């Protein structure tokens, strides 16, 4: 039986490297990925500070699996290179016993990774979106001051001659849309104000002129308040309008039941409309505009229900990549037999992501479209488990 002291030593080494690498990698992700996004959107210092708590779980979501793989690769690669694996085997102990600390570590870490993934998508990303939206006034003024132009992801753009304090001189606001929904407003002077209650950006314009489509044009003298709606990004109470990827796991089950009821209601509505059209001898209405509208709403409801069924499987599959990465990485590091940390990690990490992520994305896309059961998102993990078992069998013959 493998000595308890050796087991504790291996586990301690894994934990030590894991903690240090996790701090470093999480910081790098924050600085590079998140920091680049902050600079691109033009957020100010206060907005950056408000954003950091929401960005941390997003960074951990990606850092934990890679760090778990890195830590076991370092420990077992060094042990194999220094001959410790051979020494243990010579003493009559199976090398498989040495893998037990890594397997236990990964098994305990995986539920934590699931929690980080759940926090990242249900709290972190909506929080980032909220901070950016509430900072849209400052972002717009900062870009208008430097570039005299601001284009928003919410479907509008602003061009000014200059900025004096908080006053926009000769602003031109263009709201993008389809056909007559698009319009342009110009004014002598204006000011931007973010209204959190109405979730809109208010433009206080002076002597403005509106052009809508080709036929509508009007001049509005004096002061006029013009609103640009920003959607329901701040409305967190209405779960039915939120994307399944933004819902916490604890709410998905109940929302799935409610969405199933909505889908059945849409099916009943379509059946009633079709039956009424046949009874009144108006079969042409079955393929008409109203029928297509109901059918489109039904398809959207079914698609959302499919995504609600897939989302829990996706969260757990994503979190348990830690376990399957370690299942492959630990025996592969023993087989590689090198003490160079980065060489060992590269030999383990690159083949793993080249095999896992394409299969994971394939399973996710097929599950979301309904062409594969929700558990199809685990296809990448299943393949990794097969590779890991083959490597463990090779270590057993080591």
UniProtKB/TrEMBL annotation:
<keyword id="KW-1133">Transmembrane helix</keyword>
<keyword id="KW-0472">Membrane</keyword>
<feature type="transmembrane region" description="Helical">
    <location>
        <begin position="341"/>
        <end position="363"/>
    </location>
</feature>
<feature type="transmembrane region" description="Helical">
    <location>
        <begin position="14"/>
        <end position="34"/>
    </location>
</feature>
<keyword id="KW-1003">Cell membrane</keyword>
<feature type="transmembrane region" description="Helical">
    <location>
        <begin position="316"/>
        <end position="335"/>
    </location>
</feature>
<dbReference type="InterPro" id="IPR005495">
    <property type="entry name" value="LptG/LptF_permease"/>
</dbReference>
<keyword id="KW-0812">Transmembrane</keyword>
<dbReference type="Pfam" id="PF03739">
    <property type="entry name" value="LptF_LptG"/>
</dbReference>
<feature type="transmembrane region" description="Helical">
    <location>
        <begin position="375"/>
        <end position="395"/>
    </location>
</feature>
<protein>
    <submittedName>
        <fullName>LptF/LptG family permease</fullName>
    </submittedName>
</protein>
């Amino acid at each position: 039986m493998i000595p308890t002291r050796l087991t504790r030593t291996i586990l301690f080494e894994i934990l030590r490297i894991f903690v240090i690498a996790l701090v470093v990698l999480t910081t790098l992700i924050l600085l590079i990925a998140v920091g680049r996004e902050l600079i691109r959107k033009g957020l100010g210092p206060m907005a950056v500070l408000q954003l950091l708590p929401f960005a941390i779980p997003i960074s951990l979501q990606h850092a934990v699996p890679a760090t778990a793989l890195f830590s076991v690769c370092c420990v077992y690669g060094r042990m194999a290179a220094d001959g410790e694996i051979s020494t243990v085997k010579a003493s009559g102990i199976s090398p498989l016993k040495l893998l037990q600390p890594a397997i236990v570590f990964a098994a305990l870490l995986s539920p934590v990774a699931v929690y980080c993934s759940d926090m990242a998508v249900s709290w972190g990303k909506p929080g980032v979106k909220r901070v950016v939206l509430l900072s849209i006034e400052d972002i717009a003024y900062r870009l208008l001051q430097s570039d005299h132009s601001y284009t928003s992801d919410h479907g509008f753009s602003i061009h000014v001659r200059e900025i004096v304090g908080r006053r926009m001189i000769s602003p031109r606001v263009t709201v993008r849309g389809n056909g007559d929904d698009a319009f342009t407003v110009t004014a002598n002077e204006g000011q931007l104000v973010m209204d959190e209650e109405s979730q809109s950006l208010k433009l206080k314009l002076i002597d403005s002129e509106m052009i809508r489509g080709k036929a509508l044009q009007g001049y509005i003298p004096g002061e006029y308040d013009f609103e640009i709606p920003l959607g329901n990004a701040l409305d967190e109470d209405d779960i039915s309008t939120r994307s399944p990827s933004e819902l916490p796991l604890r709410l998905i089950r109940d929302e799935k039941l409610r969405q199933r009821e909505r889908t059945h209601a849409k099916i009943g509505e379509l059946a009633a409309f079709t039956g009424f059209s046949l009874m009144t001898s108006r079969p042409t209405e079955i393929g008409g505009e109203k029928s297509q509208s109901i059918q489109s709403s039904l398809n959207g409801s079914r698609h959302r229900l499919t995504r609600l069924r897939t989302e829990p499987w996706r969260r757990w599959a994503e979190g348990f990549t830690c376990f399957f990465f370690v299942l492959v990485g630990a025996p592969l590091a023993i087989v590689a037999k090198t003490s160079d940390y980065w060489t060992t990690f590269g030999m383990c990490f690159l083949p793993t992501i080249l095999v896992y992520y394409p299969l994971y994305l394939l399973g996710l896309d097929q599950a979301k479209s309904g062409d594969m059961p929700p558990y199809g998102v685990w296809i990448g993990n299943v393949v990794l488990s097969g590779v890991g078992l083959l490597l463990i069998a090779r270590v057993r013959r080591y």
